[in-house]
Structure formats: structure tokens, C-alpha cells
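User: Is it possible to get a 3D structure for a protein together with its bound compound? The compound here is FE2/S2 (inorganic) cluster. I've pasted both below.
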Amino acid sequence: MKQIGTFRVNGKHCDAIIEPHMLLVDVIRDHIGLTGTKRACASGNCGACTVLADDQPICSCLTLAVTAQDRALETVEGLRSADGTLHPLQQAFIDHCAAQCGYCTAGMLMTAKALLDANPRPSREDVKRALSGNICRCTGYVKILDAVMDAAQKINAAREVAA
Ligand code: FES
Ligand code: FES
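Assistant: Yes, that's possible. Here is the predicted structure of the complex:
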């Protein structure tokens, strides 16, 4: 049975006509039009579909859209500032060439954002553990880890300057 779903994505309210069986990844991509989030394995194994729900990374391919209506959702499109400035994680991925095809990148960024929000000074091991559910099939992980560590350092340095 079709119904109007109301979602809060990247701080904005979005309505979409949904059905009870629909997955959040498909609603975000096909009904809300935010195609940065990727659908790959569709079985919770690769992390490409990761979005944040109330600041926690979730697999949107394992989440029924109806259950996400009361949660604050954040997708990769929400990382950039309103003035177009990239999030330090996005900039660090560029600086460290941490993407090739980029299919995993949105999920990597969202998982890394949740980590840095919760733990601003992670060790490399912390980053590895946090990203262990995000699979990259083409660039390897060294540059991704370098990028996340660099972003953490830059975010902390900016905070110290602002304090
Ligand atoms: S597409 Fe959701 S975990 Fe792979
Ligand atoms: S950059 Fe291609 S899958 Fe990660």
C-alpha cells in the first residue's frame, strides 16, 4: 500500500511516496534524488550504501524506509558546507587520491564522519576498525586511512585555532 513518507535528510524535510517493502537506499536515490549514496551488494556486506541515522552509520540497503522516518538522516550530499566548501574528509580524500572508481567513497566518508564526530583523535587502528565494514575494490586502503587521519588532524587543528 502506497503512503507518503516524510524524511529528514541533511536537515531538510523530504516527502516521498513509498511502500512498506521499500529500502531506504532506494528511496534516498530514486525518490528523494540523492544519488551519492550507492547500492552495491544490497546485503549489508560492502558499506557502499552507508548513511548516518541520528549520527550512527547504518546500511541503508538493510533498512526499511518506513522505519527511518523519525530519524535524522545524513547522506554524502550533506557533508559539503552551504557555501560549497568541502568537508575536510572530502578534501583529504582528494588530496590523498583515496578514490579510483569512487563507488565506495560515499560510504567510506559517512562512516569516517561518524567516527571523527565520536572520536576526534582516533588512532590508525581505530580508523581501520571503524572502516572494516566498508569494502573498496579498487584503490586499496592505505590512502583511505591516510586521508581519514589527515582529516582528523586538520579538523583538530582548526578547532584549536578557533578556541
Ligand atoms: S549496498 Fe548496502 S552494504 Fe552493500
Ligand atoms: S574506489 Fe572503487 S571501490 Fe573504492
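The chain has five helices and five strands. The chain has a mean pLDDT of 97.
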